[in-house]
Amino acid sequence: MEAKDIKKVLIIGSGTMGKHIGLQHALFGCDVTMYDIDDKVLDSALTHISKIASRLARQGYITEEQAKEAVGRIKGTADIAEACKDAQLVSESVPENVALKQKVWKQFDEYLPADAVLTTNTSTLVASQFAAASGRPSRFLAWHFHLPVYTANVVDVMPHEGTDPEITQLVIDFSRRINQQPIYIKKEWAHYVYNEMLTAFLSAAKKLAVYDVATIEDIDRAWMAIMNTQIGPFGIMDSVGLDTVLHITKESLNLTPDDPVIQDTVKFLQAKVDKGELGMKTGKGFYNYPNPEYADPKFVERVKPIYK
User: Which of 129, 149, 184 represents a domain boundary (last residue)?
Assistant: First the structure.
């Protein structure tokens, strides 16, 4: 099988990442099946995918016709056997929990075609932790996307020691086919490439807020002004989802349980999550959405050339 031959894609998990990844495949000609455990969740996901496609059309990245055709290529099902039928490539985006991922892959192993390419979109784990559960570890690797997938078009391709090199190359080639820039990771590395850098950046921002060094707004403002960006670390965390940020921080705490800074950071994030303030997806996180304060042109006093 070559990259051009992949026509049918299965997305396991219809959360934020699954929706964007599914749409990306559909935009580039693939028939996509979204799997989740609940029909109501799937209905909501398909509605949201339509909104994502419409937004891309309004922004001029795709046409209205392309958006309509892509959405038409996507269906949802809560039936594992139906989801797996004729699947050539699988992308899994269930929550970042090793036991859960092992359970899911064991369930799907019974139904997936023997020649399917199997990938996980994990951002904090490595494929070798649950590759065996897939039943075919040689066809299994990490394939990690970034949000928003269409415009943040970089994808990490990270095989484990048992991944067939031909499968790795196939995923690299297919990444380019769906307009993603593949970043080949030569060894298993838990935070991949961009996330390794991002984690350090966000950790520093969280530390400043936890110890009340400056306000959330001023921490973001400092970064946005100096680096000339449209969003700061806390805006980024809102877009990722504070539940996800909390989970990643807890994973760090598991590695260094006596670290007082991480302990305090977990408490800081847990308070937001307990109140249901998860960021953009709930309308409130560190900022209120859909009109966050940092999006106001007056949030950062930018210097502009005036003698031109």
Answer: 184
Q: Residue 153 is part of which domain span?
A: 3-184
In a domain, 300, yes or no: no
Q: Are residues 45 and 98 in the same domain?
A: yes
Long-range interactions of 207-211: CB distance < 8 A, separation 24+ = 207/261, 207/265, 209/234, 209/268, 210/261, 210/264, 210/265, 210/268, 211/264
User: Cα Rg for the chain, rounded, in angstroms?
Assistant: 20
Region label for 192, one of left (φ > 0), alpha (ψ between -120 and 50) or beta (otherwise): left
> What's the mean pLDDT in 46-67?
97
Pairwise CA distance, residues 158 & 183, whole Å: 8
DSSP state of 291: S
Name the DSSP letter for residue 295. Answer: G
Size of the chain in residues: 308
Instruction: Specify whether 151 is located in the same domain as 235.
Output: no
What is the residue whose two structure tokens read 């398909």?
46
Task: Residue 272: give its domain's CATH number.
Answer: 1.10.1040.10
pLDDT digits (tens, 9 = 90+) for 270-282: 999 999 999 999 9
Question: Is a pLDDT exceeding 80 seen at residue 127?
Answer: yes
Burial of 111 (0-12, 13-18, 19+ CB in 10 A): middle
Segment 233-250 mean pLDDT: 93
Is there a contact between 155 and 178 (Cβ–Cβ < 8 Å)? no
**pLDDT score recorded for residue 153:** 97
What pLDDT score was predicted for residue 105? Answer: 98
Specify the number of domains making up the chain: 2
